[in-house]
Amino acid sequence: ASSRAGSGRFGGAAATAASPMAASVDDGGDVDDGGAESDNYSSDFDEEEVARRAIEAEKLRRRERAAARRAKRDKEAAREEEKRRKQQQRRAADVAETERERRKKARARREQKQREKDAAMARQMMLETQRWGSDSYVGDASASGGDDEGDGGDKRGRRARGKSKDDAARKRRAKRGEAREAA
């Protein structure tokens, strides 16, 4: 027992074994000290476990924060994408509207030109009709040999054309004036 007194680990057991009466308790003392050592080991293990769990928890928190950041980033990206898509739709709608307006104006211009063309053609045809009509009646009058008969012929022609007597007389006077100037 005295040889074991030097070892610090079993100091308590050596002191107990010094009296011969307590020799049988020696093993029990060893067992008790072993229990104390086991407690120390257990507490060390607990500290390691606590530290390991703290590290795991920190890792988990970091992962969760990273996931939250990613989700936030994805949400913002989706919002930006939606905004961009709406802008593109608006631009496309504006372009389509502008194109519609352009076509509408172009169609209106074409129709206006066509109307002007039609009106000019109608005026030209009316003038041609009047000119040729008056020439033929004058020709009829001169061929018949006299103004009286010519007037009669002209009158019939005027009624057929819906013209007034004054118009025909005005035209005849104008033609006579032209003939005089030419002579």
Automatic annotation (TrEMBL):
Q: Where is the composition biased (Basic and acidic residues)?
A: 50-84, 91-101, 109-120
- Where are the annotated segments for Disordered? 1-183
Q: Where is the composition biased (Low complexity)?
A: 1-26, 133-145
Here the segments flagged for biased composition (Acidic residues) are 27-36
Question: What is the name of this protein?
Answer: Uncharacterized protein
